[in-house]
């Protein structure tokens, strides 16, 4: 079955590291945007029902939950909403649950207040912890938390403090990303003007090693470069991106894959609102580009890459530089995932 992604491009404020397509809600009524999404869905739907629904952004928790309910109703499986801690209350958590969400992905990023301030987050560590507990009390049994390592001013010690603090809450899933300075973001500008410095590479390696060790001790499986889950609780929706399952993306900036062809909606909200059903563009991939996509996504995962997709020369490289799974696939060893791009490059055509 296919997955459904719904992009909510609205935020109360822009975080300093974020390069996703998002902006303030000003000038756009939530009801009008939800109607545009429904029009696109009616015109482009690739299934009567979906294996998963993921409402991301932006900040979906800025949208009235009643407007999200029709999209959650399209799946009897995993139904995720992304939220920020400052939007979580007993009332909003109950509303998301009633709207049909059964999984929450919450951006925490750090449990050190000075680090949160440095990247423009508008919540405190204490608020994040209380938001998690509020979601639990509301009845959410599947919660994913996001962290970032390599933040400005972060040390291996403060990273361990944040990681241990989140693991002590006992979430079902953890996403942990190494900070990247994307052009066009405020953090990139600060880096280029010398106002901040990148975290020392040796410190980043130590943070990654701590991440792998502590999540393993807590019973998590490292199933994708940046994702960890308790057994059986991997993100079913995100996994569809890595194993070539079809998915439909709604909203400006969203991408889709029908099993053969990729398409995308330009990141332009005014243009989308004018004609949401036909704004998408075909991403004309060659056979080589499709092969490269498969290789790159498969080698991001613990499941790995089928040797049937490789030439004899590529097989020789894979046998020398990669490890194998019990099923016989090639995969990148966990300690090497930090240099995955270097290892994958020779297998791209």
Written overview of the protein:
By secondary structure, the chain is α/β, with parallel strands linked by helices. The protein has two domains: 3-240, Alpha-Beta Barrel (TIM Barrel), CATH 3.20.20.70; 291-349, no CATH class. 38% of the residues lie in helices and 19% in strands. The protein has 13 helices and 14 strands. It has helices at 30-44, 65-72, 90-99, 113-118, 125-138, 156-169, 186-192, 201-217, 236-242, 269-274, 287-298, 312-321, 340-344, and strands at 3-8, 50-57, 75-83, 103-109, 143-149, 173-178, 221-224, 227-229, 247-250, 255-257, 262-264, 281-283, 323-324, 330-331. The strands form three sheets. The chain has a nine-stranded mixed sheet with strand order 7-8-6-5-4-3-2-1-9, with helices on both faces. A three-stranded antiparallel sheet has the order 10-11-12, with no helix packed on it. Strand 13 (323-324) and strand 14 form a beta hairpin. Helix 2 (65-72) runs parallel beside helix 3 (90-99). The longest helix has 17 residues, at 201-217. The two termini are 30 Å apart. The model has no long low-confidence stretch (mean pLDDT 91).
């Amino acid at each position: 079955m296919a997955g459904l992604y719904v992009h909510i491009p609205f935020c109360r404020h822009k975080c300093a590291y974020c390069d996703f397509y998002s902006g303030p809600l000003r000038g756009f009524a939530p009801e009008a945007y939800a109607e545009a999404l429904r029009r696109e869905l009616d015109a482009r739907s690739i299934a009567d029902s979906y294996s998963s629904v993921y409402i991301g952004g932006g900040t979906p928790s800025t949208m009235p939950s009643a407007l999200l309910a029709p999209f959650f109703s399209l799946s009897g499986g995993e139904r995720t909403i992304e939220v920020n801690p400052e939007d979580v209350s007993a009332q909003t958590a109950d509303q998301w649950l009633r709207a049909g969400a059964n999984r929450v992905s919450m951006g925490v990023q750090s449990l050190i207040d000075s680090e949160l301030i440095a990247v423009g987050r508008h919540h405190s560590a204490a608020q994040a912890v209380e938001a998690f507990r509020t979601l639990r009390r509301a009845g959410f049994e599947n919660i994913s938390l996001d962290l970032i390592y390599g933040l400005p001013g972060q040390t291996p010690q403060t990273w361990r403090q944040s990681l241990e603090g989140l693991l002590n809450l006992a979430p079902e899933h953890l996403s942990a990303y190494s900070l990247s300075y994307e052009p066009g973001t405020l953090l990139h500008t600060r880096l280029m003007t010398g106002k901040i410095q990148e975290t020392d590479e040796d410190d980043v390696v130590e943070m990654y090693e701590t991440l792998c060790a502590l999540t393993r001790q807590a019973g998590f499986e490292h199933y994708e470069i940046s994702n960890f889950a308790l057994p059986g609780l991997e993100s079913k929706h995100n996994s569809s991106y890595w194993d070539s399952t079809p998915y439909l993306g709604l909203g400006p900036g969203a991408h889709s894959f029908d099993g053969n062809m990729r398409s995308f909606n330009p990141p332009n909200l005014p243009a989308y609102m004018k004609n949401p059903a036909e704004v998408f563009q075909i991403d004309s991939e060659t056979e080589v580009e499709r092969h490269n996509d498969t290789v790159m996504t498969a080698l991001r995962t613990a499941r790995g890459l089928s040797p049937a997709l490789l030439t004899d020369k590529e097989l020789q490289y894979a046998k020398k530089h990669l490890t194998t799974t019990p099923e016989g696939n090639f995969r990148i060893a966990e300690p090497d995932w930090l240099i995955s791009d270097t290892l994958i490059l020779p297998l791209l055509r």
